[in-house]
Write the structure tokens for this entry.
Amino acid sequence: MFDRRNKTEMVAANEALPGRTEAMKVPDRHLVLGTPLLPPFPTGIETAIFALGCFWGAERLFWKQPGVYSTSVGYSGGYTANPTYEEVCTGRTGHAEVVLVAFDPALISYGTLLRLFWEAHDPTAGMRQGNDIGTQYRSMVLTVSPEQERQAQASLETYQAALRQAGHGTISTEIASAGPFFWAEPEHQQYLARNPNGYCGLGGTGVRLC
């Protein structure tokens, strides 16, 4: 078991937990939007994946946006297949807590989703967000196309300039091609819809992406 200090250090692939072959069973429908949680999604719906700390508040941020078709939470960016929440919290899977956003680009652009992402958390915080400490809370944009990667990199540069002007440090956000997305347990899906007074760790820098 990693201690609090070691949870901020990425586990090596050969030291990661093995996981399992069975995929997590999740609800058929989004508790708030009533849409499917799992693909395939309707023609024209695109997906985006973001990590910005605890995924409970992050998911709510996105499902409230007009043009978002569905959201779900899970784990990505690491090594362990089909991990549990408890395994991810040990720091021994390499995964971050992430949100999968299915959206209609005719109603909400990927650029708008990026703006929400940057402004809703502190992308300079490294392996933590607020009091949440560990590699699972790191900031990531996992892209599913070259165009998403181009927009994500451009927005990072723009936001870095804005942060520097406001006296903040260097962005630690990782931008990478999306690998496997492993859905989290049913109790984590739309958690704040069932528990409206539950914990939400979102906290931005107050700097806008213009």
User: Anything to note?
Assistant: The beta strands are 46-52, 68-76, 96-103, 128-129, 132-133, 139-143, 174-177, 182-183.
